[in-house]
Specification:
By secondary structure, this protein is mainly α. Helices cover 45% and strands 0% of the residues. Helix 2 crosses helix 3. About 7% of the residues have low confidence.
């Protein structure tokens, strides 16, 4: 007797897909960082041991090449706090 096993076609879960419905609470056009980049970097930073916003910002700077010369540590802080 032959047994057929049905294969499940499941995509690998994605942080971006999971949080895709979040709305960017920032107002105006002066945005230094992409909304989803801040979410993903924040989650990864916490998983790696960051315990405050400064540690998250440091993690982000160490892992992501940023072409801008000016960075605002408060931008991710205010965004994550408003969620």
């Amino acid at each position: 007797m032959m047994v057929q096993v049905a294969e499940k076609s499941q995509e690998t879960p994605s942080i971006i897909k999971h949080f895709a419905e979040l709305c960017d609470p920032r107002k105006g056009t002066l945005r230094y960082h992409n909304f989803m980049d801040i979410i993903v970097i924040g989650i990864c930073a916490v998983i790696c041991g960051a315990d405050d916003y400064e540690a998250m910002a440091e993690f982000g700077r160490s892992k992501v090449h940023v072409s801008r010369t000016t960075q605002r540590d408060s931008s991710p802080r205010h965004l994550l706090a408003s969620l």
